[in-house]
Design brief:
alpha+beta; 6 helices; 8-stranded mixed sheet; elongated
Length: 252
């Protein structure tokens, strides 16, 4: 379940107005919203590593609904998708526009398991091993370790548009990848009302795509940045304290 961008913005404005701390425009809020969502999304990975170590040391609660590592995995599950890769000049990539529907694809964050399929007799659908570019070159040149249709390898590199390009050997007839997609940027869209006020417009808005449990965290982090914008250290201190308490409670 997503977090309503309108609820977050109205809550932020309410707190600022109640304390007479100033005003944040929709443009400022939208910039902060993107920054905060990216921060929270990126924090899942080091947090999950820490929680996974606790699991391995038997210090993490594995009771249903109370395992924090599984909770982080759950928060990421909606961004995990299996996608078809497109071949272009010996490299596979995830296109920014779907060639079938013409619709824009989400930005790719990370590439997971890659399956290379080779048609013919026999047909192979093989898990493809990730290697470094240096290892790829060495393995390709060796007669003993040269990749096969049963045991293909790949390395990936970034393109000019920050796209992930995969070099697979041997080149398969098709390839799919389990990937992690980035959340869409939140936007508080509006129309100008009869009194020249900002009126929320759901049709041009985009909610936060983080789990609903992150709503308080989002609000606190945005308030922290609001304190920087309006040059009020009190808001920064209060928001940072609240944010740290939430983080400590989540990890303890």
């Amino acid at each position: 379940m997503a977090v309503s961008v309108n609820t977050v913005y109205q809550t932020v404005l309410y707190i600022l107005n109640k304390e007479q701390r100033g005003y944040v425009t929709p443009a400022e809020f939208n910039s902060l919203a993107v920054q905060v969502q990216d921060e929270i999304f990126n924090s899942y990975f080091p947090n999950a590593n820490q929680l996974n170590r606790q699991n391995q040391n038997n210090t993490q609660n594995d009771t249903e609904f109370f395992n924090m590592f599984e909770e982080v995995s759950y928060k990421l599950s909606s961004f995990i998708q299996e996608v078809n890769l497109t071949l272009q000049q010996d490299f596979f990539y995830y296109p920014s526009v779907d060639p079938t529907t013409g619709q824009s694809n989400r930005a790719l964050y990370r590439v997971g398991e890659v399956i290379s399929t080779y048609t013919g007799q026999p047909k192979y659908s093989s898990i493809t091993q990730l290697v470094s570019k240096t290892e790829y070159s060495k393995i390709e040149r060796s007669k003993l370790t040269k990749p096969t249709k049963q045991y293909p390898i790949y390395y990936y590199t970034k393109g000019a548009s920050n796209s992930n390009f995969l070099k697979i050997s041997p080149i398969p007839d098709s390839a799919v990848a389990n990937v992690l997609l980035k959340p869409l940027d939140p936007v508080w869209g509006f129309q100008i009302g009869s009194l020249n006020q900002y009126v929320y417009s759901p049709s041009v808005s985009q909610d936060f795509e983080l789990d609903v449990s992150e709503q308080s965290n989002i609000i606190m982090r945005i308030l922290k940045y609001c304190g920087v914008i309006i040059n009020d250290p009190t808001i920064i201190q209060v928001a940072e304290q609240e944010s740290k308490e939430v983080e400590i409670n989540d990890k303890s």
